[in-house]
Amino acid sequence: MMGHLKCFLMATTWLLLQVFQVTSILVNVVIEMLSGVYMFIRYDVFSSPLEEKSIMCKDEPEPVTCDSDVAPIVLVHGVFGFGEGKMGGVPYFGGIENTHRRVFCPDLGSLTSLYDRARQLFYYLKGGQVDYGEDHSKTYGHSQFGCVYEQGKYSEWKEDNPIHFVGHSAGAQVIRMLQQMLADKAFKGYQNTNAKWIASITTIAGALNGSTITYIYGMKPDDWRFAKTFSPLWLLSVAVTIYEWLDVPWLKRYYSFGFDHFHMSRKHIGFWGLVDCLSGNAGPFASSDWVIPEVTIQGSTHINSQLNTFSDTYYFSYAVKATEQVEGKVVPKRIQSGGSWFRVQASWICDWSYPKKFQPPYSEYRDEDWWDNDSQLNTISMTHPRLPSEHPLSFDVNDSRMDPQSGVWYCQMLEAYHAQFVLSIRTGTPIHQLYDTIFNRCRSLDMKRRSQSVK
């Protein structure tokens, strides 16, 4: 009798844990979307014209021409993020883009792969139809060509007119992949690209080496390309597939996961095509051509093995921590403006250990190195590319420093939660001041470049 009761309690506990984790990932998506609705109502419906001008993103900023004194700054969002024109025009980066000149916020796929986002980002800036490449498209089972940008936001982009990039979360790796593509001359018809097209890269809570929360939500430690059946991420893939299949125009205009190039719409594949996608025989989740596998530790290591740190580019990273040690145990820290939900997720990462029955993701892996986190990403992942090999790093960072060395990652530690860097950034807060610092540093680097060109 006791044995049956024990089994029942264990099964009930497991089921409750699964329900809790499924709920958690859905809550993350809902929070993003409800925040957008709130911001839209707060700043669009009830704001005065002056407030609206200072807060709201422009739906479609006009393309810009070469201006030698101010290089554009491009803000790249991460997983579940969005850019200009989505969520009713809500500014994903909290309106900070309107406080400085020539700051762009492209809307890239919120769940598409780093590769696909990097390709889209290039054509967003240069103009033309997105070309994902013949080989890549055949390998992952989607169309070679995507949306068309009739005129690029900065069509004069080249080595002499470089751009500064700022990436939050997985957006950091999108930028690094784009730079490698530029160095490899990977864009057909553009044979003069190189790494110098990017003046600087700044990462904020960047997913440079992956995150253990991907395993908590269901990615297989022994096969990082796929999620466990009935796990939160597996259920997310089912929900996204249905969302793409339904292809409701007004919903897609409001928020897009970015999988249009897979042609999963009911208009293209019909009912049996949906069955094929849900069965794992077609679509991005069948080929692992989506972002979550790439932000596992193994996925990030695989990607980092193909990406370089370039000697002529300036690199800055902000590693974030919302945990502390209490009596030898890593626990979430109470941070102002940090909700209890963030602490719950942070506690999961603090308590998680890599399953002993599987080979660790790299030879020197230790669970305790990955416990400090910001509720979404591990702090160790954010400093600089370190897997599979270390890139040059300096922790000697002073925000007032005007003469950093190119080709070196300059890292600064911050105390915050992952989501505090987007959406509800208020003027005068430390997060707002952080972006001001980053933008002003980009302008200082512009001045340095101009002075060197004169010499």
TrEMBL record:
One of its GO terms (molecular function) is hydrolase activity. Residues 71-184 form the Lipase-like C-terminal domain. The keyword Cell cycle does not apply. It comes from the Eukaryota. InterPro entries: AB_hydrolase_fold, Lip-like_C. Keywords: Hydrolase, Lipid metabolism, Secreted, Signal. The keyword Signal applies. SUPFAM superfamilies: alpha/beta-Hydrolases (SSF53474). GO terms for cellular component: extracellular region. It is found in: Secreted. Residues 1-24 form the signal peptide. One of its GO terms (biological process) is lipid metabolic process. PANTHER family: ALPHA/BETA-HYDROLASES SUPERFAMILY PROTEIN, ALPHA_BETA-HYDROLASES SUPERFAMILY PROTEIN. This is Lipase-like C-terminal domain-containing protein.
